[in-house]
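input
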Amino acid sequence: MRRIFYYAARRGLYAFRAWREYLRPVGPFFFKNIRLEDLEISPVREQDIPLLERFLPSKHAGKHRDRLAAQKEGKAEYLIARYGIPVGYVYTIWKAGDAVRLEELPPLPERAVYQEDLYIHPAARGAGVGGLLWKTARRRVQEKGHSAILATVMLTNPAMEATHSRLGYRRVDDKVHEYRAEYTDASGRKRAWSTRVKYFILEF
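output
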């Protein structure tokens, strides 16, 4: 019972902050009642960055702005789901080789993209937001003529491995790989980051 009140209070706090700071409705008071037809999914815009940093912050301080920059350069697309305020996002890099050392993997289909970080705010989970966001991202990948989506699953997240299998992904190989990336910290400096992952692929 205590947990129920905790999550209800947290959802209420986010709705109240949005109303106070942006003076516009954010839909039902509890995000669990989100209506998917009222959800807006589109590429990130400059004016979205302060909202993302406020409501969907990351330990990688410059993540949202770095992704916007990559999108402006035509290297990627950063889709975000808005319900008055941002409630989720997914990031697609158009050339898998820009994110992954392809020489470590078996040959991939031509025009494979790399997709990562499908994230939904905890207060908005269970309403179908993640499924709709993922389907929208997949459709945009197909519309651009790409033939496959490469994804990573961290060893610390077995639930996401099950989700990828349910969505039709298969393991690329039986190895555990080291995934490396860079991010911008709060001071604006570039930092290196790595984690152990399994690679999955979805072919169309």
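quick obs: The chain is about 30% helix and 30% strand.
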